[in-house]
Amino acid sequence: MLLAQYNYLLRDRNESYEQVKSPKLGNYCDLKTRGEACPLTCSVLKSSSIGYPWKKSQKNPQRSAYEAQSSTLPTLKKERPWYKSINSTVLQQMLRQLDTAFSKFFKGEAKYPKPKRRTRFRSFKYAPGQVKLDGNRIYLPGIGWMKFHNSRPIPDGFTMKSVTVRRKSRGWFVSIQIEDKSVPASPAKTAKEINPGRVKGCDLGIRKLVSVSNGKTVQNPANTKKYKRQARRLKLRQRAANRKKKGSNNRKKSFSKVALLHERVANKRSAYHWETARNLVDGADALVFEDLNIKGMKSRCKPKPNENGGYDRNGQSAKRGLNRAISDAAWGELVKKVEVVAVKSGIPVIKINPKHTSVECPKCHHTSADNRKGEKFVCTECGYHDDADVNGAVNIKMRGLKKLGINPIQLPSGRSRSVAYGQGKLRPWS
After folding, report:
1. DSSP H or E segment with residue 261
2. Which long-range contacts link 270-275 to residues 24+ away (Cβ below 8 Å)?
3. Does the first or last residue of the chain, that is N or C, have fewer Cβ atoms within 10 Å of its Cβ?
4. How many CB atoms lie within 10 A of CB 6?
5. β-pairing verdict for 286-290 and 304-305
6. What is the pLDDT of residues 342-394, one digit of tens each?
């Protein structure tokens, strides 16, 4: 029922949005008159066409799209009595979820909202103050008291802010967001408080997940034998599930095993990212990352038409492996986790333009594609050499210092790292 209501209200906002771009039923009326408009010619609200558009407020008498659609819930329960079994707060939170999706779209943070399928709508929320806890029992309005595994107790002084009930491959989970207003937030460090020697430039990659400007590297777990065995097991299970008859119980059981393996891989990746984020934040005054266009990096290659009316090979089949490796590394999720951990310590996270960071010499600033060959970096002008990924991290750090208004540190002459090619390897993060 929540899914049907979500898609119904999404369609209403889509039609209103299309009416704004290219009016099909006439131009909109003048909202200054505060008059009821005929629905056959125009709509009062530009974001929604259902619900009453006005409220009792002299400063802002016009309702928002969320408020207008929320005003239809009492009428909805009268017309469709089965909606009474759903808690009113759950319906309102679903409207907020839709409103947040449109807000992110207009800010450029997400794509245009699309209708959800049953398999993609597996969670609902409760507002603060409605859910109760009693040891290993939890009270969900509209459902009642239920037993659950309390993984960690709520510390003293914290209150529940929101409760999300989510269905996963292993069952139902409850996520509780807590807040303590008495604990002040850590203030972010200013440029005067930042020590240039404690600024870390971080270069994201495939073979090495993160290369830090101080010479340390973080191993990518996707390159380990254990991860490759899991990938092969996942591939075999997917093949076995696809061979099952569509609509059969065996097919459902097979795909449930596939979903369970996907969840295990995602949990291990997330745990590794959190550990990496804590290691990066530890001992740093600021962190600098590249502002990567990950979506553009994984985009399809442009087709190459030939003279015969067909198409030549464009390298897309070979690029599939690179796209899969980028998705397995999950750079975007890692940076988000680093930002969450850094905020708690008041450490700023800066993003810079990644152009030419891998082929620029940090000593003489000579930029050429000939400087880099694989994982080796040797400047063709001054002879400066280093690990290519670590060299990119140094350039990222220098640009981050300039963005903060701090004079970059002068690099020593000759080799800047203690590890030379042919003499040893950079050890992964311990």
Report:
1. helix 249-281
2. 270/333, 270/337, 272/221, 273/330, 273/333, 273/334, 273/337, 274/337, 274/341
3. C
4. 20
5. unpaired
6. 998 889 999 999 999 989 998 888 998 998 888 899 998 888 888 899 999 99
The closest of 14, 45, 12, 19 to 31, measured between CA atoms, is 45
Rounded Cα gap, residues 92 and 98, in angstroms: 10
Strands 208-212 and 199-204, how do they pair?
antiparallel
Q: What is the CB neighbour count within 10 angstroms for residue 139?
A: 13
138-149 pLDDT, tens digit each: 999 888 999 998
Q: Is the pLDDT of residue 338 over 50?
A: yes
User: Following DSSP, what letter does each residue of 179-243 receive, concatenated?
Assistant: E-TTSPPPPPP-GGG--GGGEEEEEE-SSEEEEETTS-EEE-GGGSHHHHHHHHHHHHHHHHHHH
d(CA 365, CA 387): 16
CA angle, 97 then 103 then 107, to 5°: 145
CB 13 within 8 A of CB 48: yes
- DSSP-derived 3-state class of residue 125: strand
CA distance 158 to 257: 37
Sign of CA dihedral 402, 407, 408, 414: positive
Residue 172: strand, helix, or coil:
strand
The percent of the chain in helix, strand and coil, each rounded to the nearest 5, is 40, 15, 40
Interval 253-308: pLDDT, tens: 999 999 999 999 999 999 999 999 999 999 999 999 999 999 888 888 888 888 88
352: which 2 tokens? 């810079």
Q: Where are the domains of the chain?
A: 2-83+93-106, 123-179, 191-404
CB 303 within 8 A of CB 311: yes
The DSSP call for residue 33 is: G
Residue type, 340: V
Neighbours of 366 (CB within 10 A): 15
Known catalytic residues are 203, 290, 389
